[in-house]
Design brief:
Number of strands: 5
Strand order of the largest sheet: 1-5-4-3-2
Mean pLDDT: 86
Order of helices and strands: EHEEHEEH
Oligomer: single chain
Strand content: 25-35%
Length: about 140
C-alpha cells in the first residue's frame, strides 16, 4: 500500500505528460529509478540521460536504487515514505475541455516533495502555454 497524498493535475490531451513528469523528476532526483506498475520485478538503476517510456498509464519513480529496493522489500515505511511517487496518467477525462487527469501519489507534501510537486505543476503549465502559443502561431 502506498498511502500518502493524491494530487490531481488536469492537462490537455496533446501534452506529453509522462515525458514532462520524468524530465522534471530527473532534474530533482538525478539518480531516479523508473518502474512500470505492471512489472513486479526489482527495478534496476536508470541510465543517466535515458528517459524511459512507460508501457502503460501507471508507473513508479523512486529517488534512487536504495529507495527502490526499500519499497520493493518493505513497502511503505516511515523511512522511505517520500522517496517514491506513483503516477497514473489519464484515469479521468473532461472531454468537453479536451483535458485528462494526471494523478500523482506521494508521501507527505512537505519539504523536498512539495518542491518536486510544485515543479511538476509548473512544468505542466509551461509546456501547455508553449504548445498553446505554437497553435496560435499556426492559426495566424
Amino acid at each position: 500500500m502506498i498511502g500518502g497524498t493524491d494530487l490531481v493535475f488536469w492537462i490537455r490531451d496533446d501534452v506529453p505528460a509522462a515525458d514532462v513528469i520524468l524530465r522534471t523528476v530527473r532534474r530533482k532526483w538525478p539518480d531516479y529509478v523508473f518502474q512500470d506498475a505492471d512489472d513486479p520485478s526489482m527495478p534496476s538503476k536508470s541510465a543517466r540521460g535515458w528517459l524511459p517510456r512507460p508501457s502503460g498509464r501507471e508507473f513508479f519513480i523512486y529517488y534512487d536504487l536504495a529507495a527502490a529496493r526499500s519499497w520493493h522489500e518493505d513497502g511503505a515505511t516511515s523511512e522511505n515514505l517520500n522517496t517514491m511517487i506513483y503516477v497514473v496518467l489519464g484515469n479521468r477525462t473532461r472531454p468537453a475541455a479536451n483535458l485528462r487527469s494526471i494523478t500523482i501519489v506521494c508521501g507527505e507534501l512537505s519539504g523536498e516533495m512539495r518542491a518536486l510537486m510544485d515543479e511538476i505543476q509548473m512544468s505542466i503549465m509551461d509546456i501547455t502555454r508553449s504548445m498553446r502559443g505554437l497553435m496560435e502561431k499556426d492559426a495566424a
